[in-house]
Design a protein that fits this description.
heterodimer; A: 421 residues; alpha/beta; globular; disordered N terminus; B: 325 residues; eight-stranded parallel sheet
Chain lengths: 421, 325
């Protein structure tokens, strides 16, 4: 790589500027979530807190110069330790505010170039949205999903609409807070409509369209999912996007963990995304994609599964954040983006750290040198280092907080090494 | 024409079983509490199947997290690999890592038995156990140690046949081999002649089990274009997913000499089918396609929409069966 062509230092770029172009190579960001503070979770559940859990909060506040801001939160935690009772709404808000502020400041202090609040106010990505949709009802029981782990599915029984006043809880409160406290540019994570559609029971649209497509089950399933996704895009996701763009959001990331769940339905995902971003020109849009299914039962593998459908993405979406470290097949996985780049070129947020629990259990984490090599491998395949951003593979909510911090550090050090060539 | 009905896969967990599991996960419950709740729920669902007059009664498989789990965990040469979505569902399986060739087990040894409540199941009823079909097992596993896929499926089918034979010796009267992969490949347009030959070879080995009837149950995909092929396989019953396969395609064929299990109840939907409509469809199928026996089934296990929805679908099986009698 010819260093002369590029600026390798994260010098004094204008953090408030629209970040379509950056002044140095390999900017870094977090994909979305961080694990909530243990003390906050236990306090919310009225469980007995330990002194260590409170000390963790105190130490973090000190490390990121938030002692004054932590006072009220620590008072609540101390009270909970003595007498675990149900928190008041005001107390829950105080703890959520502190948690969000801590994660924002932590990301800035460690050196990420684009930041947010670690999704500190959200329960879980699907439930965060599904519980605020009119036209959804919940299944009677938790449904088993991954081994013994379970989840609550929403059933669509009418046209999905956001519940009244739900925008505040969904996005506005957290975004306003981040805007008020951030010093670096923000990247706002929002669920994509397709994920909500594929994880929900699409009863309403299947019944609605049955008279039209009843003799063709495949077509019925496709069209019902398509109409459902578009309704979610228009009525549930786009209002969130419009709200934060109106308040100054310059970069919105749409999260798509389930892009290849149904290989034949990928064009629906693209159509849903386009319906979200169409006509919104004053913000950058990116997608975060989890690793495609390994067993596709087709000849295509990995991110190849998304092509050619991705060529139809709205031009407003010009950045893809990809899970890559887990497979560590950068050359193979990114080849398809290089192959299609004359037709459609995307910036790539390269996943450089494996966020799986297995790696945490093994006590293994990448070194800065491994990260550097992964960044350069990606830049080499894509043929343009300007197109490469650096990120973990996915959100970090399943991991321990100290591991998340270490992951940020190796990522940032690795990016610095990569800038040196 | 004789009509019947039965369940074809894992039943949705109850909220009580979820709570027992959740408490154990958080260190506040015990594995005994899970086992007790699992047995209690198993007894209830078996009882419900008997009261509904179903032709075969299955263990609701509350102790099985994915189809390959007993095989992957209990077979020496197999390791549990990385997780993967179970087809297009938000339910996961772990890819078996098969280091072949596998030793075909002694008939006294079973990989399935410890996951099921056979003592509850075999009491006073025709009972059915569900095993993976050798083709789906091969297609969704990471396999090494064989010269080619033909050799691999031969070995897998031998192991499955030994398992089926053991289960029959324990009082099981029907074995259902689950075969989603072949119809999903068909739907995706990636099915090859080799795939069909592999399926044929595998089922040729394990499809007949002395002392029991067998079924090849396809789901999650459109079987339509390959029904003639599936119809020739050496099993007693062919299962077709009627929520993925066009009704007209089902009617195009003659199933005489074979039983037909039609998955007309969508286990992946909380929408409840109209029993009159279902009964009408079954009468048409019986009249036009002449199967030896025609069963109404859900297209797959009811685990995808939970316990209550599973009970509703089971109620529909009963209602339609009564209408047809």
């Amino acid at each position: 790589m010819n260093k002369k062509d590029y600026n390798y230092g994260p010098s004094q770029h204008d953090h408030d500027a629209h970040n379509d172009s950056h002044e140095f190579l390999f900017p870094t960001y977090e994909v979305g979530s961080l694990p909530k503070l243990n003390a906050r979770v236990k306090a919310a559940r009225s469980q007995q807190l330990t002194e260590e859990e409170i000390t963790e909060v105190k130490d973090l506040a000190q490390r990121y110069s938030l002692q004054a801001e932590a006072d009220e939160a620590l008072d609540i935690l101390h009270h909970q330790k003595k007498n675990p009772i149900k928190l008041s709404t005001a107390e829950e808000h105080t703890l959520a505010d502190f948690n969000a502020l801590l994660y924002l400041k932590l990301q800035e202090a460690v050196g990420l170039d684009f930041v947010y609040d670690g999704e500190a106010r959200r329960s879980e990505m699907y439930q965060h949205v599904a519980t605020r949709v009119e036209g959804f009802e919940r299944t009677s029981e938790m449904i088993r999903s991954r081994g013994p782990d379970s989840w609550r599915m929403a059933v669509c029984i009418n046209t999905p609409q956001l519940k009244e006043s739900s925008l505040d809880h969904l996005i506005i409160t957290e975004f306003d807070f981040v805007q008020q406290h951030r010093q670096k540019p923000a990247k706002v994570p929002i669920d994509d409509p397709y994920m909500i559609a594929v994880m929900s029971d699409n009863r309403y649209y299947l019944e609605l369209l049955k008279p039209e497509y009843g003799n063709d089950p495949g077509k019925l399933r496709y069209e019902a999912k398509r109409v459902f996704t578009l309704a979610l895009a228009k009525n549930v996701i786009r209002p969130q996007v419009e709200a934060v763009v109106a308040k100054g959001a310059k970069w919105i990331q749409l999260d798509i963990p389930a892009a290849t769940l149904d290989i034949g339905h990928i064009p629906i995902m693209v159509e849903g995304l386009n319906a979200v971003v169409e006509g919104i020109t004053n913000s950058k849009f990116s997608l975060h994609l989890c690793y495609p299914r390994r067993v596709s039962l087709t000849e295509k593998k990995g991110y190849e599964l998304l092509f050619p459908a991705l060529l139809d993405l709205h031009p407003n979406i010009n950045h893809l954040s990809l899970e890559l470290a887990n497979a560590d097949r950068y050359e193979n996985d990114l080849a398809v983006f290089a192959q299609y780049k004359n037709q459609r070129s995307f910036e790539i947020g390269v996943g450089v750290t494996d966020i799986t629990l297995e790696r945490q259990q093994q006590g293994v984490i990448e070194t800065p040198e491994i990260v550097r090599n992964r960044i350069l491998r990606a830049a080499n395949v894509l043929g343009d280092p300007n197109m490469v951003y650096v990120a973990p593979d996915c959100g970090l909510r399943q991991l321990q907080l100290d591991r998340c911090l270490k992951m940020y550090e190796v990522m940032i050090e690795g990016a610095e090494l990569a800038r040196k060539g | 024409m004789s009509f019947g009905a039965y369940l074809t896969g894992p039943f949705g967990q109850s909220q009580q079983l979820y709570q027992a599991r959740n408490e154990a996960k958080r260190g506040r419950g015990s594995s005994e509490a899970i086992s007790q709740q699992s047995r209690k729920d198993t007894q209830l669902i078996i009882q419900q199947q008997r009261e509904a007059g179903l032709d075969y009664v299955i263990d609701p498989m509350f102790n099985v997290f994915y189809l390959f789990q007993p095989f992957a965990e209990q077979t020496n040469e197999v390791k549990v690999g990385p997780q993967e979505n179970w087809f297009n569902n938000n339910i996961f399986y772990w890819r078996p890592q098969i280091q072949g060739p596998l030793t075909v087990p002694d008939l006294q040894i079973s990989f399935t038995e410890k996951y099921l409540h056979l003592d509850e199941l075999t009491e006073n009823a025709n009972s059915m156990v569900i095993l993976p079909s050798p083709y789906t097992l091969l297609a969704l596993s990471d396999v090494i140690g064989y010269a080619n896929k033909k050799e691999a499926i031969t070995n897998l089918a031998e192991v499955l046949h030994a398992e089926a034979t053991h289960l029959v010796s324990q009082g099981i009267s029907r074995i259902q081999y689950d075969e989603p992969a072949i119809v999903v490949k068909q739907s995706l347009g990636s099915l090859t002649v080799e795939d069909l030959e592999l399926l044929q070879r595998g089922i040729g080995i394990c499809g007949r089990v002395a002392g029991a009837s067998t079924s090849l149950h396809t789901y999650f995909g459109d079987a339509g274009p390959i029904i003639p092929y599936l119809n020739r396989l050496p099993v007693d019953c062919l299962g077709i997913d009627g929520t993925e396969t066009s009704f007209n395609d089902i009617l195009k064929h003659n199933y005489s000499g074979k039983e037909l299990a039609l998955g007309l109840l969508d286990a992946r939907s909380t929408s409840l089918e109209d029993p009159i409509d279902i009964a009408t469809k079954l009468r048409i199928v019986a009249e036009k396609t002449h199967p030896k026996k025609l069963y109404l089934t859900p297209n797959t296990g009811t685990e995808y929409r939970g316990f209550t929805n599973g009970l509703k679908k089971l109620g529909l099986l009963k209602q339609v069966k009564e209408m047809l009698q």
